[in-house]
Each structure stands twice: as structure tokens, then as C-alpha cells.
Amino acid sequence: MTFEKKKSLSRRGFLAGTAATIGLPALAQDVDGAGSVLLEKDVKTTVSRNISSFRSLDWRPYFSNLNNGAVLVDISSRALHFWGADGQTYKLYPSSVPLSEELTRRGRTKVVRKIVGPDWRPTPSMLKRNPEWPSYVPPGPDNPLGTHALYLSWTYYRIHGTHDTRKIGRKSSNGCIGLYNEHIAELFSLTKVGTQVLLI
Question: Could you say which of 81, 148, 176, 183 is catalytic?
Fold first, then answer.
């Protein structure tokens, strides 16, 4: 093999390697909310699992009736399902879910209060984990509850909006379920005090 041919192959290899490296962040990596890097194989697995499980569901396996409507939150697929009491209305929204299993609560509850423009106070355990957080945040663009909140019968648990849209579809909350502000506004209009809620 001549020197010129070796030089050409070496240059070609260098260019191909550089192009692959430059394309790597877009094609093979994704950064989750905690700043961790997921390799291509992990991204494919995660995306595939979430897309396949983010699908419409029937209410019957989960609720005995649709009195006052019903909300199902599927933590695994990061999706919130709503069925109206009329049996015709159905909505499916992407959601944020708790950061860890320790912060996750599952089971049956219901909507006990609805607030437009909620204020926010971190729980004692949140302040213990994050002492730099403020003890109170009024309604507005800095409020982590977004524009609307559905308060559940479980203390401290809510379904609410968020101004930080990067959180949706991720494990990013301290226990609550978050929706895009436009989605929580729609869900807010569809639910009632007494709407049944199931987290699985």
C-alpha cells in the first residue's frame, strides 16, 4: 500500500470518526432531568417502552362506575387518563411522576378541592431535603404548581400544572402528578370535587 493511499484511508477514517462523534449527542444520547446521560440502547428501550404503554385504555378494569368522572394515573407510562361521567369523554395526557419509588403513592383517592392560581408551600420533608427552598411561593410564573391544581384527599398530593415543561414525561416531582398548563386547565374544567382518582 502506498503512502498516499494510507494517508487517504487514514484521513477518511478520521473524518468518519469525527462525524460519528459530532452526531453522537443527537443520535445516541439523551439527558434526563437529573443530568444523567442515557446511552442509545437505554434511550431506545425507554422510548419504546413509554410509547408502547402510552395508549388509550378502557375504564372498566379500574373503576366500577364513572360517577363524577374518573382519573387514572399510570406511573410507569407517565400518563394520566380521564373518563367523563357521560361515558363519552376521554382524555389522555403525558405527565410528570415522582422522582423515586419512596416518593410515589399508589391507590384510590379523590379530588377534594380545585384551585385556579394555587400558591405553594413545600412539605416539611421537602424542606429537609432542600433547605435552600423558600417556605412559601405565591401564585405566578415561579410557582411549581402552575396555573391550576386539583387537591387530592391524601395530604400534600396534587395533580397540577407546571411552568417548567421539561418536567413532563419524566420522573421529576416530589410526589405530585404534573401536567402541561394547558392540559391541567382542560382537566380542571372536566373534573369535579368528588372525581375519583386511582394511581397505579
Answer: 176
Nearest Cα neighbor of 118 from 94, 150, 96, 156 is 150
69 in Cβ contact with 83 (< 8 Å): yes
Nearest to 79 by CA among 97, 62, 66: 97
- Identity (one letter) of the amino acid at 77? S
pTM of the model: 0.73
Q: Which residue has the cell 379530588?
A: 111
Is 148 known to be catalytic?
Answer: no
Check if 176 is active-site. Answer: yes
- Concatenated DSSP letters of 146-182: TTEEEEESSTT-EEEEES-GGGTTSEEESS-EEEEHH
CA proximity to 187, closest of 45, 69, 30, 100: 69
Q: What is the pLDDT of residues 76-117, one digit of tens each?
A: 999 999 999 999 999 999 999 999 999 999 999 999 999 999
The grid cell for 108 is 384510590
CA angle 146, 181, 186 (to 5 degrees): 125
